[in-house]
Amino acid sequence: MTTTTAKKTKPKAKRKAPGPVWDWTAGHGPVTGALSATSGCLAVATTGAATGMPPGWALTIGAAGAVGHTVTSLRDRLSARTVGMRAASWLLGAGWTTWAITTGPLTWTALGSLAALGAGIGASARATLLREEARELEAIAAAERQVARELSAERRAIAAEWADRIHRVCGVSVRILAVEMWPTNTGFTIDAELPPGGVTFERIAQYAPQLSADARLPHGCTATATAGIDQGRVLIDVTTVNVLAEEITYPTDYTPLSLHTGIPWGVRTDGREVLAYLREQCALVVGPTGSGKTNMAHTILAGFARTTDVLTWVIDLNAGSAGLPWVRPALTGDSGGTVVRPGVDWLAADYDEAMLMLTAAVRIAKHRKTAYQDLMAQANTDLLPVSDRIPQIMIVIDEGAEILASPDRALRRLAEKILEVIRIARAMGIRTVLTALGATGSVLGNLMIRREAKVRVALTGGEKEGMDLAKQFPGSRGLRTDQAPYKGAGFMATPESPAALFKSWRILPNQIRDIVHTTSDRHPTLDALSAKAAGADYARRWDHTRTAWMNDHTPEPPAVCATATPRAGGLNLSAHRTTTEPPAAPAVSGEPGDEDTLAAQFMAQIDARFATAPEPDAPAGPEPEQTPGLNLSAFRNGAGAGPDWLPIAIHAIKAAGPDGMKPSAVADMVGKDRKTVRAGLKTATDSRALVYRDRGPHSVYVHPDHA
Fold first, then answer.
1. How many CB atoms lie within 10 A of CB 610?
2. How many CB atoms lie within 10 A of CB 698?
3. What are the residue ranges spanned by the domains of the chain?
């Protein structure tokens, strides 16, 4: 007995039908239209002859079709030839159908005449279609010629007007070759040929304010002359719409950027993005308070965060405020479980961290000089090939120009490190972006800054004091601060483009957060050789001990002079000083009784704040020797070494007896958080005012009398 196993067969795919594929939704052309008309006439004639239909019906239907197509053709503004062809086709078809119903449609005479009728309809339809297409193209061309004539007339008027203006204001007779209207409709560019005799474009550039005034341009609009295609040509950019007054938000297109293709920092008055090429150049951004300099710094950091071949280091001795918004999204942990890298690779907010950063940068630059010799030889270049594997390091130093000009001894050491980085690290891919509050001689007096910082920005904000534009943009004439009196507006110059007006983007905190999240996986990592040269200072830059200040919102004590001894907060008491300071004389108004009134108020404040009465439960024994004067806590053992609630806590702990009190109970009693209370009680244990009994979760503080 045999069994057979049924084999499973796969369903065969449907074979594609051979031949042409008909598109039943397409309209009729000359051939298909003729076939449709003749086949329809034959079908109607055959059916009518077989059923005895009155022949006049076909003629009536044909006449109605001719009238309908005539109306629609006139509505579509078709030519008379097209209207006549369509009406004739309907009438001829209706006439043949009427004749065929009467005499019979299936005779050779009827069929031959129908074929001839179809061929004639197809030929006339083809000819009419070609004529309609030619007519339509001619209409389009005529409209374009009309627009060109109008535009040409406008350009000719602009050319004549400005040729006369340049001759009248500058004393130069130019021949205008072209006028290009900007796509943003905010101005135009004039391409002119200079007269023979050695006249250069600078001759016209120095008259930019006079040309703008003569043209009655709106405030914020300029007529700027720059070099043309050769030394005998000049380009004059004329802005007719003030685009600097409006706030322009940072683009939401966070596409990847590269250091080699330029990083956008804002827009020119014609709407074009102005790019900064920083592979070999440093940058200097100057702006007084209120000009939008901080916002510009965030715009620069946003561009660096979007690049795939740049690591950003930030130095801001003003509590790190320039870099904190780019670090906080990675610290807050609101990314939905995904790992978010900070928008900057290293942030220094104090002198020590800044010195570590700059020292590491110097070590990296020197090590790269030797470690990548083979790579540079293979690439046949003396510049380190910067890429996502060997990224460039951009050090953004907020108010760095002021550091370079500071007379402070510590800041001078920091300035020496900054200048060393600028001097030795160009070829090895480490560049700086410095900011300053003003374009003054102290800021721009350093030759290294003037020579290396070829990318320069001046955010004027209309400020005139400390804004020497001629010093910051040497060789550029006609630049005035009143041309850009708006926040975020100013002048920008690069080696590729001369100094001209521009507008910095407005970047908002939510955009900074979005950019950090979007570009988190885009940031490169420092190459292994450079990381090894940077050492532990770089590897541990995000250790808790070095970043705790980013989440610590407790106010820091005021800074003290380097020659003074740190002292506790409160009054500036002589008991806390190691050097003798002459007491300051109280300010009085000169009226009788003012000195007594101030003294009384001062004594009341002292009594309310420092409790001049004897301490409760004072231990028996001889009174300690007191300094003559008030009974201040500064003279008591352990009482003044802590916050103002500490004496109350010590008294309560003493009243609790040998059992003592837990820190949580003390926190509830004084109304403070446990972290603050633990720190205060630790101060008391260090001064032996309390004793700490470590019992794990049941640890308590006990007064020494009960210990």
1. 18
2. 8
3. 30-142, 172-239, 259-546, 595-614+630-706
d(CA 211, CA 215): 6
H helix or E strand, kind and range, residue 422 = helix 409-424
How many residues are listed for the chain in this entry? 707
Angle of helix 674-686 versus helix 646-655 axis, rounded to 10: 80
Cα separation, 516 vs 329, in Å, equals: 7
Buried b (16+ CB within 10 A) or exposed e, 189-208: bbbbebeeeebebebbbebb
As its CATH architecture, domain 259-546 has 3-Layer(aba) Sandwich (3.40)
177: helix, strand or coil: strand
Check the CA dihedral 135-136-141-145 and report its sign: positive
Helix axes 509-518 and 324-332, enclosed angle (nearest 10): 60
pLDDT tens track for 94-153: 777 877 777 777 777 777 777 777 777 777 777 777 777 777 788 788 777 776 666 578
Tell me phi and psi for residue 224, to 5 degrees. Answer: -110, 130
Chain Cα centroid distance, residue 309: 17
pTM here is 0.59
List the beta strands (DSSP E) in 216-318.
223-227, 233-239, 263-268, 273-276, 283-286, 310-315
